[in-house]
Amino acid sequence: MKKRVPWLYAISHREKLFRIMKLSALLLFVSITQVYATGYGQERFSLNKHNISVQEAIKEIEHITNYSIFYRVDQIDLNKKVDIAVTNVPIAVIMEKLLNGQSLTSRVINNTIVIRSQQHVVTGVVTDSATGKPLVGVTVQEKQTVNTAVTDGSGQYSIQVASDNAVLEFTSIGYKSYSVVVGSKEKIDVVLSSIPQALDEVVVVGYGTQRKANLTGSVYQVGSKELANRPVNNIGQALQGLVPNLNVTNNDGAPNSMPAFNIRGGTSYAKDPNDGKWKVSNGSPYILVDGVEMDINLLNPEDIESISVLSDASSSAIYGARAAFGVILVTTKKGKFNQKANVTYSNMFQWNSPTARPDMLNSTQVQQALINAYGLVGQSAPAKELQRLDSIKAYAADPAHHNPYYMDGNSIIWNGNVNPYQLGVRNSTPSQKHNLTISGGGEKNSYYASLGVLDQNGVYAFNTDKFRRYNFMLNVSSKVTDWFRVDFKSNYTRETYSRPVNPGGKGGWWRAMSQEPARNVFMPLTTPGNAPIPNNYTGNILSYMAYGSNNRDDNSILLLTASPTLTPLKNWNIKADISYRAEFDQNKTVVPLLQKVETDWNPADMTTDYTNPSYISKDAANGYHYTINAYTDYTLKLNNHNLYGLVGFNQEQDKSADLNATGNGIVNNNVPVINLTSGQKVPADAESAWATQGLFYRFTYDYKGKYLLQSNGRYDMSSKFPSDRRGKLFPGVSVGWRVSQEDFMNGISNVLTDFKLRASYASLGNQNVRNYLYIPTYVTQTQVNQLFGGIRPVGITPPGLIDPNITWETATTADIGFDATFIKKLTVNFSWYNRKTTDILSDGAKYPAVLGAAAPTQNSGTLQSRGFDLKVDWHDVSSYGLTYNLSLALSNYKTTVLNYKGNPNLLLSTLYNGMVAGDIWGYQTVGIYQNQAEIDQGPNQRLITPGIIRPGDVHFKDLDGNDTISNGQNTLLNHGDQKVIGNSTPKYAFSLNSFLSYKNFDLNIYLQGVGKRDYYIGDNLFWGAIANGSITTASGGIGTEQVYNNSWTPDRPNALYPAYKGGQIGNITTQTRFLFNAAYLRLKNLSIGYTLPRAWAQRIAMQKLRISASGYNLLTFSGIPKYFDPETLSANYPIQKSVALSLQVTF
């Protein structure tokens, strides 16, 4: 009876992989034991079949013989038609005819015939096309298999392939891949060509692209690879530190926080809304997404192809008035023509936690510190304070049998023991991201579509804040004819953010939580007679948060762009960009009616609205932005002369409107609508609009790619200025010399591969100022304070003075630098710049007080920023096949006020001529007074430390020699004992980014930091009792263990901080003793990933599968107290650190 093996040719798709593994094991066994195998039997057989499939022939052979035939279905063509007409021949002849043309052989093992691939070993050497040198670490892979080899130190390889039909693919980072059919060849030498990099790289610039070799301005480009695999919510966080002198500032760590951007330091003046004083501002660059202005932080990072940063004015000049302080150009991903559809799904599951938590004192420490303070001033603590300390200790020891308060008459004395940062802040908060993209194209059309979702919870344990963002993008390109192409791009983003409302008077949530360790979140259930009702609001910030106050934002933005391109002749293009951006923002704030139990208790007042009043506020804003670009360019090559010209027209129009209403006194918390409020209802609205028009040009010339010249410019008109002062021409010019192309450099060309000197000079106008500055504007009052006819009518405030001659601020920048490449691996880019902003709109000269009006805003200021940018990159492949890229970015700047007319007396409290932005004025500290004798010998410092000076107080140095510590007149000419003791501007910002890959593993380590920064801590919550106006006044806050445990006592004479007591606020005035070093080094990103070999992925119906783990802000090294994050020193929401797991699959 013949043995059948039907599953060999009837394997289901589900079982295929498993059985192939079993078959592979059997074939391995066959190869080991084949020396013991018998030859083909001596039996003879006859078979006469024509035009039958191999599969049918196998069945027939098994039927007429005693053999079972064993084979791998992935190595044999079962559908191939064969003719077998033989009579009385050995089985070997039949098998030879069966397998003819399939590069297969067969062998008999007992009663089984095993079909397998013919053995074919291929060897060879892989070399570089440019140098002829052998290449190390090149991957040699037999396509559609996991069979691979790697070239050794001599560039040699050896690989055994399955058949003559095998295709070998040679790949190496930095080189074009190469594929070859093996055929009958046993030796295949391959020459790989490098991918154009560095100087041959194409960089996106204004209204076009340029070869990096021909750039004469300061331009940096970041690719999608550098932005990938980072657990961040927006592009700003991912960009931080990657580009020198692109300053990315995170205001706080809230889920919806949007980083701010600045290029190269101070740009202009701006009035501080908190104190009304003018200060140096670090203005934002002009940010364009596919040629249209948009907040880059709203984009899905997965959709970005590249980001170009135009740092110098000559590169930005083509964008005119919107680009006075640099440009960021974002290019999104597009589909490729003639590419089958690729579907990619990726996700990231992330866990976040604060980088720093305050080490606040507990209730016992706060009360003990108060009692100790009495002793430090030679007094005895009152009995009621000692009683409260006993009560606090009793509750802390046994909270089940003691209340967290007791009554003193109608007053509640709190003695709880709450740590708000443990109770109100989550140890870890989850977030997740999901992205789905599909891209591809045919001969005439290409497409890229993506959908992204981000969902993140905030850190608060009560009434948790929640953020969600949806992104949708569709980019389509169509080659209508050989000379006409249309690109269409659409982008839609929606964000929602819900968070608790902060009560007035308590500051930001993060700060407010440190104020109340003795006050429970909720009233306890066990209360004595005539005591507060349980579970009511206690006044603790967490109690307020828990009671449901809510602020919800719902924002949407839609961006549509159509870009037709005509090419009437070779090298001549006519292009246009027509775009529309619509923004819709809604906000609803509800502060509900709360019953209070705060300080005093009276049962009759339980209906009192603590929020006084509760209220509902709704706001709806919308904005529309229209952009039209029309331009044409032409390229001409005449022998060694290369010319390029571009001219164009731009028009932008922006309209916005806002409508809001507020209703006070909520009637029912369950129905939070304005119509159901009992108090005053206040509506308000606003509208605004502006427009610009401009004509722009770019002309470039180079001779042999050696001598480079470029001119950019723009004539701009803006509605923000008077009609006779709206237009102005802003030109720029830049030159370059590729020294390495000169004959005299040939001797070192192997070392200094390329070297280019460049310089630029340009002026740009700045129209990023308030609307209607040249028009007198009125301000309405809801109700005046006088009665007319028994009512209080609406009032109008007369306008202030205006200057009808205001015009453009002008930023003029000179930039010199070089670009160098060494041994084709090391690139260095350096720029030094000097930017001067003139005609800054700010306060003019002071007018006599008798005028009765303030001076109008005028073009009166001058500001200068100087600094440098440095970028160093290293790309290499080791002899072991390890690929590694290292990138260093370093920058610094200094901003100086050259002219400010609003401060003729040169007061130090605002801008003054000669001021360096960030300078910290303060006193020099001698030390801390240890005894009365030192105090008697010291200077009189009552002017800054009023009251009695005692041991434990700070001893200041008398710098002006008058035996009195004072600030003089607090002016530049008379500053008393003050001096510049530091500077708060971050100096020497740096980053070190490293990418390593070995076979299928990759590793990214990204370090970022600041080399120098001074910070004086003026936060009363940090200082605690030392900031109190008196011993019993609690204005300073709770305080930190760092200060409390390191404050002066007679037993701690060498302590850093002064005596922990109130009544001497001067102890913490700005001074050298408490000037902290806020420089830091941070492990910004760490990620490790593994990519499944392509052949393995293809076996499970995938093109690519990658898994990775990453971390963000994992480690920080700084001299700043742990109460603060050195990156954002005064945040009202903690900066986050994260760990994440992610998956990426491409089909």
Automatic annotation (TrEMBL):
Domain of life per record: Bacteria
UniProt-annotated location(s): Cell outer membrane
InterPro entries for this protein: CarboxyPept-like_regulatory (IPR008969), Plug_dom (IPR012910), Plug_dom_sf (IPR037066), Secretin/TonB_short_N (IPR011662), TonB-dep_OMP_SusC/RagA (IPR023996), TonB-dep_OMP_SusC/RagA_CS (IPR023997), TonB-dep_rcpt-like (IPR039426)
Keyword check for Transport: yes
Domain Secretin/TonB short N-terminal: 67-118
Membrane topology note: Multi-pass membrane protein
Family (UniProt): Belongs to the TonB-dependent receptor family.
Protein name: TonB-linked outer membrane protein
Organism: Niabella soli DSM 19437
